[in-house]
Specification:
Layout: H1 3-12, H2 23-30, E1 34-35, E2 40-41, E3 48-54, E4 59-64, H3 74-86, E5 93-98, H4 106-109, H5 112-118
């Protein structure tokens, strides 16, 4: 493949259009991602730590964690976060980082609704 072909392919790639979503809109969209083991969305569970949209680059950086480092659905959740954000109008790219600090603690990170669902009083 020639350099010319690569350049043409890259320039033909669709560019994000529309207004870049803000952190709140992205978090709201991520509520569609459900942890299949718990049956609750990852935002209410407190697994999404940081959402950083950059309007200049149209990239969103997401720092998230899992319920445990050995979570068997970790790759699926990470992929679902990436796909959900990437499909939003105004987003050109998304980077999802798994972080382990602070360690996820549902009594601290989960919403009140999630805590009640999990039996944490």
């Amino acid at each position: 493949m020639s350099d010319e072909t690569v350049t043409q392919t890259e320039s033909e790639a669709p560019k994000a259009t529309g207004e870049m979503p803000d952190e709140e809109a992205i978090r709201e969209a991520l509520k569609d991602v459900i942890d299949p083991e718990i049956g609750m969305n990852i935002v209410d569970l407190g697994l999404i730590y940081d959402v950083e949209p950059d309007p200049a680059t149209r990239q969103v950086n997401v720092n998230m964690t899992l319920t445990s480092p050995g979570c068997p659905v970790g790759p699926e959740l990470k992929s679902a976060v990436w796909l959900t954000v990437k499909r939003m109008d105004g987003v050109e790219d998304c980077e999802v980082n798994l972080v382990w600090k602070p360690r996820w603690d549902p009594s601290v990170h989960a919403s009140e609704e999630a805590q009640m669902f999990l039996g944490i009083w």
